[in-house]
């Protein structure tokens, strides 16, 4: 029996003892983070599935993992001999978890989960289902705790202050902006649990979560006070002095429940129902809830001009690191096979040599050949490929720098690309260029713009399953809301208009199962374009600086305007990066930014 089958049996035994008929394990923590501390990696511990998104439902005779198309291929491998069945969420046939439970449980049966890690909005959906289906919902059950021996400890890394010149906002200004919006909403107090909002609000950074410079904490904000609830072992003398200067009180992480319980029944408490858990909020029994987005989320997403200037400098350093890496790679792969693991090591080492580098911004995706067809493939010491022969290598990587967060995907040929690979690559490139060149009216959402990037693929009868773009933080989370570029939205979600200063990824793709994957990604920032009597128009400035490999392009599929955009982009890449590199890296940059001829384009 596999270790995962054994754990599944233990969970079912615990369910029987607790009289629970269906138990749900969410991929989450009390802060609803995308990347989780090891302590909260219960889904991976129970099922063996290592992807960053997915949740489990377990009954007496069924165990299923719900995850989206990015992870279907990976999940098929990870779930072998685990007892869990892959439920392909988003395929048009698989029901939502909550609907599946409603259809498979009988009236009077009990469904349970740990409300400490479940969003208030999600809890409300489950409660509505339970009421309509005649089920009992228990939101205060952690059945993993008694069966998980040697569970990892909660992280306890020290905090540090994000200081000028990289930090371009003052805490007092951040608090004033949040308090102003609280007042407009009629909220006396505001509970913040989302870690990137806290890091931004207080100009603090940490390392409690892999790749994201954040720390586990909560905060209560009123018009007169700001209290940070955190494990006080993380507070260095320097940080303590800083918080004292900013008039920010510090309380133990565990004392939030007491503070919430002390709020009076006349208190109006602002919470984002998608960013606060029902378990954390349970202690605030008497308050009047105001449910709305955290003001800090939108404030944080709209970078100011000083921050964008820092990001431009960061992008140049990141691009220079990539020049060094690709120069090394192209020379080395001619003489020997390179492993996907080496790509990760070398690209991280190249970034680490650049000033103000902190860490990768996510786990590097180095996927050769068929592995590229898995959008979130991750090579491991136990499972990786050698890069040799003919094929496409997809590299999605990024860095955390004191002056910004980067995220870039490039596809390069190893050996000779086929005509079909060139066609796929060029169609993806056309979508990326189309979005890069977009001009749109103020108020347009990413949901509406998504079609711009997909049109070349749709016209060829092709598509990709993930979103086209996600928001990116400023030395914060590489995935940041509230904006995104995707026609798919979750039920009840409100599309966010793109606003000036928002940094978003631009990453259409195409994935042919067991053959290859293609994704080309730049980061773009929303900038003013034109304002007249007809409209106020926005456009995008491309921030990422790195050549796009022209060896995979079929020029006959590009228009004159697309080739001109690509040539102008490469000219800027060369001008900005050439002063930062030398030797083989400079020679590689010169070669890869040569203009593409316009004589063979489609018009």
Number of helices: 17
Strand count, sense and barrel status of the largest sheet are: 6 strands, mixed
Average pLDDT: 94
Q: Numbering strands along the chain, what is their spatial order in the largest sheet?
A: 4-3-2-1-5-6
Q: What class, by secondary structure content?
A: alpha+beta
Q: Residue ranges: pLDDT <50 for 5 or more in a row? A: none
Distance N to C terminus: 63 Å
User: β content, as a range?
Assistant: 15-25%
Gyration radius, rounded: 25 Å
Helix content: 25-40%
- Choose one word for the global shape: globular
Strand elements, count = 30
How would you describe what is shown here?
By secondary structure, this protein is of the alpha+beta class. Helices cover 33% and strands 20% of the residues. The strands form nine sheets. The chain has a six-stranded mixed beta sheet, with helices on both faces. It has a six-stranded mixed beta sheet with strand order 12-11-10-8-13-14. The mean pLDDT is 94.
Label this structure with key terms:
single chain; 603 residues; alpha+beta; six-stranded mixed β-sheet; 17 helices; 33% helix; 20% strand; globular
In short:
The chain is an alpha+beta fold. Helices cover 33% and strands 20% of the residues.
Topology:
Layout lengths: L2 H16 L3 E4 L16 H6 L7 E4 L4 E5 L4 H7 L6 E4 L8 H8 L5 E3 L7 H14 L2 E3 L21 E2 L9 H15 L3 E4 L2 H8 L1 E2 L12 E5 L3 E4 L7 H9 L3 E3 L4 H6 L6 E4 L6 H4 L6 E4 L3 H7 L3 H28 L5 E2 H13 L4 E4 L4 E4 L17 E2 L3 E7 L1 E3 L2 E2 L2 E7 L4 H18 L2 E3 L4 H14 L9 E3 L8 E6 L17 E4 L2 E4 L3 E4 L2 E10 L4 E7 L17 H18 L5 H10 L11
């Amino acid at each position: 029996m596999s270790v995962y089958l054994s754990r599944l049996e233990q969970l079912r035994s615990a369910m029987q003892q607790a009289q629970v008929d269906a138990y749900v394990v969410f991929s989450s923590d009390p802060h609803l983070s995308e990347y989780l501390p090891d302590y909260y990696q219960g889904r991976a511990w129970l099922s063996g599935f290592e992807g960053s998104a997915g949740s489990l439902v377990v009954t007496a005779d069924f165990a299923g993992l719900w995850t989206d198309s990015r992870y279907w291929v990976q999940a098929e491998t990870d779930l072998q001999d685990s007892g869990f069945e892959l439920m392909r969420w988003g395929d048009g046939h698989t029901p939502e978890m909550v609907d599946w439970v409603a259809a498979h449980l009988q009236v009077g049966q009990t469904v349970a989960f740990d409300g400490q890690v479940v969003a208030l909005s999600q809890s409300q959906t489950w409660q509505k289902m339970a009421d309509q289906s005649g089920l009992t919902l228990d939101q205060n059950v952690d059945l993993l705790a008694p069966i998980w021996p040697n569970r990892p400890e909660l992280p306890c890394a020290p905090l540090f202050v994000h200081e000028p010149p990289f930090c371009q906002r003052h805490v007092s200004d951040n608090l004033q902006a949040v308090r102003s919006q609280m007042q407009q909403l009629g909220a006396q107090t505001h509970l913040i649990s989302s870690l990137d909002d806290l890091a931004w609000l207080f100009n603090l950074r940490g390392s409690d979560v892999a790749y994201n410079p954040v720390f586990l904490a909560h905060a209560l904000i009123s018009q007169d006070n700001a209290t940070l609830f955190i494990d006080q072992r993380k507070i260095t003398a320097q940080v303590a002095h800083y918080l004292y200067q900013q008039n920010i009180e510090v309380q133990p992480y565990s004392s939030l429940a007491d503070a919430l319980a002390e709020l009076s029944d006349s208190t109006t408490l602002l919470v984002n129902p998608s960013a606060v858990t029902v378990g954390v909020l349970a202690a605030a029994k008497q308050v009047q809830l105001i449910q709305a987005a955290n003001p800090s989320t939108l404030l944080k997403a709209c970078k100011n001009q000083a921050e964008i200037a820092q990001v431009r400098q960061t992008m140049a350093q990141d691009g220079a690191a990539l020049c060094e890496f690709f120069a090394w790679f192209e020379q080395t792969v001619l003489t020997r096979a390179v492993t996907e693991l080496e790509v990760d090591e070398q690209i991280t080492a190249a970034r680490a040599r650049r000033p103000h580098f902190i860490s990768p911004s996510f786990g590097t995706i180095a996927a050769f050949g068929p592995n590229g067809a898995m959008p979130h493939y991750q090579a491991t010491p136990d499972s990786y490929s050698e890069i040799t022969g003919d094929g496409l290598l997809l590299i999605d990587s990024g860095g955390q720098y004191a002056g910004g967060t980067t995220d870039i995907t490039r596809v390069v040929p190893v050996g000779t690309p086929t005509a079909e690979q060139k066609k796929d690559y060029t169609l993806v490139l056309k979508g990326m260029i189309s979005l890069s060149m977009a001009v749109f009216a103020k108020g347009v959402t990413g949901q509406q713009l998504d079609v711009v990037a997909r049109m070349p693929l749709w016209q060829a009868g092709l598509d990709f399953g993930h979103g086209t773009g996600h928001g990116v933080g400023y030395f914060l989370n590489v995935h940041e809301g509230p904006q995104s570029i995707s026609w798919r939205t979750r039920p009840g979600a409100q599309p966010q208009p793109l606003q000036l200063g928002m940094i978003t990824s631009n990453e259409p793709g195409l994935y042919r199962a067991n053959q290859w994957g293609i994704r080309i990604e730049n980061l773009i920032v929303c900038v003013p374009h034109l304002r007249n009597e007809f409209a106020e128009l926005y456009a995008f400035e491309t921030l990422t600086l790195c050549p796009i490999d022209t060896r995979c392009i079929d020029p006959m599929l590009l228009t004159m305007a697309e080739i001109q955009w690509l040539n102008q982009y490469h000219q800027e890449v060369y001008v900005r990066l050439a002063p930062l590199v030398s030797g083989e890296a400079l020679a590689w940059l010169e070669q890869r930014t040569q203009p593409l001829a316009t004589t063979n384009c489609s018009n």
